């Protein structure tokens, strides 16, 4: 009887060990498999953007068409407001509080000087998405900002800018709080 109980106990421990090993190996195999990052939704509030509300929506649409792991959506109550967009008479700028969070000012000064509003909004949203100014002077570089000619109407990020935003939102990249202000 003792021997029978002992064999039963050994069989139960062996079965549990096999089951646990299979579960652990399955978890390891699953975690080793490549995974795609979940899409991070950022909610922007353009209610303070004055005459630039539609331009802000276009800037968000430009980013949504360009990257896959972050999406900019209009803020509605019940969601966390990540980005606030305001308008004033100064130069456009962004204050980043962390990756995906901050405030943008659509400054009328640049528009009055002839800069293309959709490029401005897409550029300033680029700061919120973790991109710095790159004063290359090239119209093809969205983050070249006002260093490109006033006649530049490119409002889409280039491949390097898209790739950087993809990398930023594929991991927990730390973007320090900063001001991005581009005077003429």
Descriptive overview:
With 184 residues, the chain is of the alpha/beta class. Helices cover 39% and strands 20% of the residues. The protein is built from 5 helices and 6 strands; from the N terminus they run αβαββββαααβ. It has helices at residues 2-32, 53-64, 108-112, 117-128, 159-170, and strands at 40-48, 70-74, 83-88, 93-98, 101-107, 178-181. A 6-stranded mixed beta sheet has the order 2-1-3-5-4-6. Strand 4 and strand 5 (101-107) form a beta hairpin. Helix 2 crosses helix 4. The longest helix has 31 residues, at 2-32. The model is unreliable at 2-35 (pLDDT under 50).
Write the layout of secondary structure elements.
Blueprint: H1 2-32, E1 40-48, H2 53-64, E2 70-74, E3 83-88, E4 93-98, E5 101-107, H3 108-112, H4 117-128, H5 159-170, E6 178-181
Parallel strand pairs: 1-2, 1-3, 3-5
Antiparallel strand pairs: 4-5, 4-6
Helix pairs in contact: 2-4
Q: Which short descriptors sum up this protein?
A:
alpha/beta, 6-stranded mixed β-sheet, disordered N terminus
In short:
The chain is an alpha/beta fold. It has 5 helices and 6 strands. The chain is 39% helix and 20% strand.
Helix content: 25-40%
Distance between the termini: 93 Å
Indicate the mean pLDDT: 83
Strand count, sense and barrel status of the largest sheet are: 6 strands, mixed
Strand numbers in spatial order across the main sheet: 2-1-3-5-4-6
